[in-house]
Amino acid sequence: MNKTQQTTLHEVLSRPTRANIRWSAIESLIRALGGEVIQREGSRVAARLNGVTAVFHRPHPRPETKKGAVDAVRQFLLNAGVKS
């Protein structure tokens, strides 16, 4: 993981939940952790990491991820065994 991806991981796992994390940074983080991001129908994407799969809604028209989605990504990463 590069420094940007490490920063994104810290931001996703930190409390209070942030609402200014770019979705592209989250996708990059998942890939850096060895996962994959698969385009689904419309703006949905499936993320797979360490045998755990979750489906997320890619935000639009703004690139920032809302707090509820960041919470869901945090839970996905924790379920997949990612530690800060």
Structure description:
- With 84 residues, this protein is an alpha+beta fold.
- It has one domain (3-79): Metal Transport, Frataxin, Chain A, CATH 3.30.920.
- It contains three helices and five strands, in the order H-E-H-E-E-E-E-H.
- The chain has helices spanning 3-13, 23-32, 67-79, and strands spanning 21-22, 36-39, 44-49, 52-57, 64-65.
- It has a three-stranded antiparallel sheet with strand order 2-3-4, with helices on one face. Strands 1-5 form a two-stranded antiparallel ribbon.
- The longest helix has 13 residues, at 67-79.
- It starts with a helix and ends in a 5-residue tail after the last helix.
- The mean pLDDT is 96.
- What order do the SSEs take from the amino end to the carboxyl end, as H and E? HEHEEEEH
CATH architecture grouping: 2-Layer Sandwich
Strand order of the largest sheet: 2-3-4
- Overall number of domains: 1
Count the helices. How many?
A: 3
CATH fold name, please? Metal Transport, Frataxin, Chain A
Sum up the overall morphology in one term. Answer: globular
Number of strands: 5
* Helical residues, percent: 40-55%
Could you name the CATH class?
Alpha Beta
Low-confidence stretches: none
Please tell me the overall pLDDT. Answer: 96
Rg (C-alpha, Å): 12 Å
Strand percentage lies at 15-25%
Please identify the structural class as seen in this structure. alpha+beta
Largest sheet properties = 3 strands, antiparallel
